[in-house]
Amino acid sequence: MVSFQAILVFISIFFFVNQCVSANEVQFYQNYYQKYGGDHIIVTDQGKEVCLMMDQYTGSGFISNQHFGSGDFSIDLKIPNKNSTGVITTFYLTSLPINGDPGIRHDEIDFEFLGGDGKYTLNTNIFANDGGSREQQFNLEFDPTMDFHTYRILWNQYHIVFYADDVPIRVFKNNTNYGVNYPTNKMHIEATIWNDTNWVGVVDWSQGPFKAYYRDFSINGCQYQESNPQECYNDNYYWNTIMNLSPDEMQEYEDVKEEQMTFSYCMRNNSMNFPECMLN
Length: 280
Hints:
Elements: H1 4-25, H2 28-31, E1 32-36, E2 41-44, E3 49-54, E4 60-64, E5 68-78, E6 87-94, E7 106-114, E8 121-130, E9 136-138, E10 149-155, E11 159-164, E12 167-173, E13 188-195, H3 197-200, E14 210-215, E15 220-223, H4 247-259, E16 261-264, H5 275-279
Antiparallel strand pairs: 1-4, 2-3, 3-14, 4-13, 5-10, 5-14, 5-15, 6-7, 6-13, 7-8, 8-9, 9-16, 10-11, 11-12
């Protein structure tokens, strides 16, 4: 006879396992749809993996079904493994309307991998109802072309934190009381592969097509409500209870700044245009 305690243990294990795998079981079309690229986006593994491709004809990208007012957003990503100079692979939040002019004032929080040949730069940027120009760049300690790594954006009313494999690499505080702009508009998620010769160099198209792979399409975000935008600051959402880095995270963050950060906008001559640079 099976004991009652054994049944409870079995049920606990069953629910624990299902919770562990549920995020990776979320299919692409549950939360996202194709933005552009035609046959240059390929959905495989029963909707659990997406390949974005770019060649000399077009890039490709996808976009979330919903807009959000706060959240803890992440994706698993493997960037192109060839000489990808000139190729940009992204995961980001933006308030821009679909196909809107990127030059207009808007909110945005960016992960952008700038391709290379054996050396790859991670560019991060923040727009806060303006034109951005808050770049910080990193040479991460791992090769982002060899395997999937998790890139995460925590965005709440207190701060924005960029994570790479759960290590905080950048923090942007909400210092609006000191005159610092901060993203507060509703935003959706986008992921793209594209090229910009003027910014990151000339693409060697003989290396193409360039392929970036994405997995884990779950979203932890507060769906924005026009009638009640403040709902997305509610403490019922776990990410809104995270006001600061933990002591261990703070040490990791300081190590990354010292060892992996290669550029910050606060190093530029015009840093006085950004009050947060003076605060830091």
